[in-house]
Amino acid sequence: MSKSYQPPYTITATIIRLISEISERLGRLAMQEDDNNLRLRRINRIRTIQGSLAIEGNTLSEAQITAILDGKRVMAPPKQIQEARNAIKAYDQFASWQPTNEKQLLQAHQLLMAGLIDDAGRYRNGNVGVMNGEAVVHMAPPANRVKKLMGDLLGWLAVSDQHPLITISVFHYEFEFIHPFADGNGRMGRLWQTLILSQWNPLLAQLPVESMVHEHQNQYYQAINLSTQTTDSAPFIEFMLGVILATIESCAGGSPQVEPQVTPQVEALLNALGNELKPLSANQLQVMLSLKDRKSFRERYLKPALVSGLIEMTIAAKPNSRLQQYRLTEQGRKLLA
């Protein structure tokens, strides 16, 4: 491990606020926790597995995964059934793993991908890209760098003195950036995040964070994309903390929505886009808002709106394209209305 290795991220006011709110909500939820409520834990575990697999295109329902868990026959594509069985085995064993142990991480991948790919449990030996539908949103580092990059990341995880919620989110983003396996990187990243979360606060092992990520899948990929574009995982940290907070609130009987970050600057940007019938470039938006500082525009207007899923890129596969433009998402249009 490189002793000087430090993932690039900044701590924003939004991150600090979300950490405070998560800690407060966890305290309240702990007071409501019933150690004998095994049924609710089982339901949440099924939701976790279903949500994580659904992000990867698995169409099994919670009822079907429950049936597989109970050893019942399910009419579904064999591959999807295998994915569910693998995930059930992995989540049953993950409490015995240590997040910084590379050997155990490879064992976890072996469990998750057994019978699905030939090199389950081994780092990839070819180049891969991160897909969102048909679009390539990120090209991962070359295969010959994966071993060192993972060593650096696990080493940093072992010594990080940052708040655990920040450490968890940074690790998740960096893992997806490296994309160490030929397949199964998304579900492995979410599994390992749940493992790290549970070791910070055992209550979080019982909450279906993956299910909430699935509900906000486009924002998930957009946050990864934007963090890569800016070489700073702060957008992903903000998104993931928002998801964790929303999951806690949903389990406590509150609103399960990931809160959009609507500052006056973001509101002005949304209004500018809402007044036009076609997408606009960053330069056009900056002129419309009478802003001269390009960095300030991107940091205070464009980036928060993208992270919140209120606007989207027209060329998501090429974030730095000179033809890049921006438009309102459905969520952005609803907020404006």
Query: How many DSSP H or I helices?
Result: 15
- Looking at how many chains there are and whether they match, the oligomeric state comes to single chain
Biggest beta sheet summary: 2 strands, antiparallel
Rg on CA atoms, Å: 20 Å
Structure description:
The chain is mostly helical. The chain folds into two domains: 13-251, Fido-like domain (Fic-like fold, Orthogonal Bundle), CATH 1.10.3290.10; 264-336, Winged helix-like DNA-binding domain superfamily/Winged helix DNA-binding domain (Arc Repressor Mutant, subunit A, Orthogonal Bundle), CATH 1.10.10. The chain is built from 15 helices and four strands. It has helices at 13-32, 38-55, 62-69, 78-93, 102-113, 146-159, 164-178, 185-200, 209-215, 217-230, 234-251, 264-274, 282-288, 294-307, 330-336, and strands at 129-132, 135-139, 311-313, 326-328. The strands form two sheets. It has a two-stranded antiparallel ribbon with strand order 1-2. The chain has a two-stranded antiparallel ribbon with strand order 3-4. A hairpin with a 2-residue loop joins β1 and β2. α2 (38-55) packs across α4, α2 (38-55) packs parallel to α9 (209-215) and α4 (78-93) runs antiparallel to α5 (102-113). The model has no long low-confidence stretch (mean pLDDT 84).
Describe the secondary structure blueprint for this structure:
Elements: H1 13-32, H2 38-55, H3 62-69, H4 78-93, H5 102-113, E1 129-132, E2 135-139, H6 146-159, H7 164-178, H8 185-200, H9 209-215, H10 217-230, H11 234-251, H12 264-274, H13 282-288, H14 294-307, E3 311-313, E4 326-328, H15 330-336
Antiparallel strand pairs: 1-2, 3-4
Helix pairs in contact: 1-11, 2-4, 2-9, 4-5, 6-7, 7-8, 7-11, 9-11, 10-11, 12-14
